[in-house]
Design brief:
Blueprint: E1 3-9, H1 12-25, E2 31-35, H2 38-45, E3 54-58, H3 59-70, H4 72-75, E4 80-81, H5 84-99, H6 109-113, H7 122-135, H8 139-155, H9 161-164, H10 166-185, E5 187-188, H11 190-202, E6 215-218, H12 226-236, E7 241-247, H13 255-262, H14 280-291, E8 295-300, H15 309-316, H16 336-353, H17 372-385
Parallel strand pairs: 1-7, 1-8, 2-3, 2-6, 4-5, 6-7
Helix pairs in contact: 3-11, 5-7, 5-10, 11-12, 16-17
Length: 389
Amino acid sequence: MTSIHYLAGLNVDARQQLLAKGLSSWRGGPVLHLVPTRGRVIELESDHRFWLRKRQDTLIGLIYRIFEENIRFSQFKDCRLIDDDVRSLIIRKAMEERSGLPDGLSCFDCLLKNRDADFPGIFRSISSFFSQLVKNNYQDRFVNHLQGRIIKAEAKGDPSGDGLYALESDLAWLFGDFEEKKRELKVYDADDVVSGVREFLIRGGVPYPVNKTDVIIFDGFIHLSRIEEDILCKLFSMVKEVWWPLDYQGGKEDALNDFRKACGREKNRHSGMEAYRIFSPMASFMERLEKEGFESVTENSGGAIFFNPAAEGLYLDGHLRNICGNNLRIKSFPGKADEVRGIAAEIKRIIHDDRLDTARDLGRIRIIFPELKEYSSVIYEIFREYGIP
């Protein structure tokens, strides 16, 4: 059975030293280093020390390679890959056609019939919702659960069960229409790629990019969808060892339980340190690996030196240290539209307080998004509303 090696250290340098030590002493077969971003891949490719011992890739990059080499020409030979913009157009077309039917759409009719209605990024948001259903393997449960709630409402004497769940009903109809339109147009998207790879691995397929790999380094991830967990479980089972740099250093006897406590996954959620709450999905994945029989060992680094006092406080005791100027502020928002509105309001505040010239000085303000294409339509709508170019 595959052995999971947790390489625990409190900062990047400590974890990289453990990795370098493991790679230097490894005498087995090829090593695959999985990281979350393409930028990290480029950074690793510039490290000449281990060029001959390992290759690096993103998880989504590996998934696409498996798809191209094992699935595409057998299942999607005459189909074209579409991006998020085309997905949004297909959803808009599906909404227009569904709205023209006798039953129509209960919730979204106003969007199509009232030109003054303001729904920034609505088509992309619906597209994102459909992706979440697929990536978390929830599409069938969503529809079945909705049908159950409608039946229960009608059984209680309310004949308008559909009306009580108008939004959910519209989304269920649109999801089916969207999938049907993709088949009609002979196109596929990123969700089809990921779900296709998952099904290929579940059926016992051995993908070419991994079939001769002895070690997978699982490095830097903070979130996985359910379908990505399924894929990784299968890939992990195909190698001898998994090396997992762990952004933590706790008890040597039970690293999994120690890490879970730090993530605040115990009954008292306030027991966890704030900096580790971001890793709670990873603690859940660790639990799953343990239940599926993967063995685990932990190697701890020595003490870590933090050059950033804010990082030291967040990691060691969950409290932000007093730093000069208090320039770090953290805010949370319920959704992308609220987040972008908050950013726009902050930009307007800066313009007013610093008396900036909007024609000349806005270049002094920088905004970093995790994935710009997911925000672009919302930014366009809301920034225009706030008068920000």
